[in-house]
Amino acid sequence: MSNKNFRSAQFGSYPYIGVLINISIALCITGILGTILLYANRYIRYAVEHVEVEIYLQREITPNVRFLLEKELATLACITKDAAGKARFRYVSRQEATAEMQAQTGEDFVTILGESPLPDSYYVQIAEDCYEKGTIDSLKTRIEGLAGVLEVDFQREYISQMQRNFRYAGIFFVVFALVFFVAAVALIDNAIRLALFSQRFLIRSMQLVGASPMFIKKPFLRRALWHGLIGGSVAIAIVWLLMTLLHRWIDGLSDFHSTNGMIMLSFFLLIFGAAISTLSAYIAVSRYLNKPLEELY
Prior knowledge:
Distance between the termini: 23 Å
Helix content: 55-70%
Shape: rod-shaped
Number of strands: 4
Strand content: 5-15%
Largest sheet: 4 strands, antiparallel
């Protein structure tokens, strides 16, 4: 029997592939859940900010007053901006609103009433952060104080109900994600501990020949660190590839993509994989160093 085969039979071989697969699977699940959370947060913000607030104008508003009103609306910080930095609002005339209402109801209420009761209006989009009660009340008061404005309808109840439903769904998902996060930690820890179980006699042999505890731990910690980094890299590649494919298959999904968020998630997967792998190896090796010889069998 060769020296290599003798050492394998005596000390056991380290299951590199199995450890890498387990770490990669655990980190991949964590990355997918993290990506879902990122996209969900972007979707919630998108949904709330695309609810249009109606600003009803007074009947006899002049073009000059309306021009000044648009300039004032463009300066409000709470109104969302497009990619070019332009405030998102649109003007709907009384005639356009009347035609739209008649198309929806199928009734010619103008003939019945003699005139359209609908006023000219602006539709604006408000940033999600501004829907807190104090902020929205202050914004409503400010807009209604502008020349030419009759009334502002923020659809507060609708927004509150939407935010409440999103909050409940978010709590459920966070609990669900935490359970899988704990499972991922346990999976990585078990993979490292089972791998080091085959090395327990090698650890004890090094200890018996006088090697210091840190000298014994170093190669195992270094190996676990690299396994965590490689597993994290594999998980990152899978998550990015999966999202790239989903962007091609699902229209509009790219609207909720956050490059900065995905980069931060990628760094987290690398650090998390390396940290858990190294910590698990440290604990496992320390346990074998402190165990009596008869308990290693």
